[in-house]
Amino acid sequence: MRPYTARDQERWWPEEGKNPRRTPFERDRARVLHSSALRRLGAKTQVLGPASDDFVRTRLTHSLEVAQVGRELGKALGCDPDVVDTACLAHDLGHPPFGHNGERALDEVAAAVGGFEGNAQTLRLLVRLEPKVFTATGEPVGLNLTRASLDAATKYPWPAGGGPRAADGTSTRKFGVYADDAAAFAWLRRGAPERRRCLEAQVMDLSDDVSYSVHDVEDAVVGGRVDLMALGRAAEQERVVAQVRAWYDPAVSDDELGAALERLLANPIWVRSYDGSRRDLARLKDMTSQLIGRFCGAAEAATREAYGPGPLTRYAADLVVPAATAAEILVLKGVAALYVMAPREHEPLYLAQRTILFDLVDALASTGPAHLEPPFAADYRAAADDGARLRVVIDQVASLTDTSAQQWHARLCGMLSEVY
User: Fold this and answer.
1) What's the first-to-final CA gap in the chain, in angstroms?
2) Which of 87, 180, 386, 402 is the most exposed, having the fewest neighbouring CB atoms within 10 Å of its CB?
3) Within the chain, how many helices (H) and strands (E) appear?
4) pLDDT at residue 100, rounded to an integer
């Protein structure tokens, strides 16, 4: 099987004099772990806002959990665990305040400059915005990660409109690179098959799906949003399947989804009631642990059956996820969507969050660099046109946490309303 090569370990900007006791991939992981973008995830929404209670996961705790799951699965397959760990830690760096609600709002206001996508923003942070390395001419190159780590962190290796085509000819909505980051993207993808993700990226993606499908349900149960007794009824199971169909429209049939949910509910590890006691918390935690083991174990076994023993890396293999496992993950995502995410889209809070981001973009765009943080103010002054300046404003707003976005809105929008 293909080992990691000097090309995999290459950096966009060569660096000299580094400690030889650490591998390039260990250094990559440390750079992401110590980044300001990762720290900010501690105050960004995962599903429920960070301030909603003391138990709920944030983007940061979710990323740490994804990294633990991905590191173990990647290591079992022969991937360098630091490459997978780096990708998992980095995978949500580009997400803005207020979770996917905020992502949709910024996509709307950035439509004229190519939209906003959290995964493309992640790449932008890694290769441009996060301060770590500059070229000899003063150009920022972000964290200057190795090619293998950057490729592993790229969940959607194509630009907007360039993804796989559906039956009607349309491209998937998700994408991984903005037009003005195309040079860095071309460099990291040099020699890679078009639109194909490396194995490490596939491990990261599955670990993300596994983690949030299991942990979002755990959070929802503890938060009193899922009635485990009601979930045992056929009518509720039909609602879950319908939610999966409405939100994800997967290739699997409704019957397969229903059978997957029945398998999970019939499994002895499934918690059928919850009263908030320490014993029930332990039972719930055991369920989440065993579900993660179930899903990752199935993928590992299927991949080994397809490719045999030995280390699997980069483009030497694809991760094989059994259809039954994929269906079980989907129905868990459906449970969280039905009882937590879908109802919240009709809450006044969701509209208020979107309004905050719309107002912030308007306020910052109308006042130029005056209220931007120094790095973004410098980017704004260097921008060549109005589109580039709007992208800088979007970069600034996307960098904010839930809390700081609210504080900036109160300060800037209140001040501007007094002026005008």
Assistant:
1) 66
2) 386
3) 20, 0
4) 86
What does the pLDDT look like over 143-171, one tens digit per residue? 999 999 999 999 999 999 998 877 666 77
Query: In 139-188, which ranges are E strands?
Result: none
The CATH number of the structural domain formed by 24-188 is 1.10.3210.10
Q: pLDDT tens digits, residue range 303-362?
A: 999 999 999 999 999 999 999 999 999 999 999 999 887 766 666 788 899 999 999 999
**Triad 25, 29, 33: Cα angle to 5°:** 170
The whole-number pLDDT of residue 173 equals: 87
How far, in Å, CA of 181 to CA of 188, rounded?
11
C-alpha 323/C-alpha 251 separation (Å) is: 10
Sketch the domain layout of the chain as residue ranges: 24-188, 199-344, 348-419
Q: How far is CA 5 from CA 18, 50, 75, 191, 336, in A?
A: 19, 41, 18, 12, 41
Per-residue DSSP letter, 249: -
Give dist(CA 63, CA 157) in Å, integer.
20
Where do runs of H (alpha helix) occur along 161-253? 182-188, 199-222, 228-231, 234-248
Q: Residue 377 is encoded by which pair of tokens? A: 């103010």
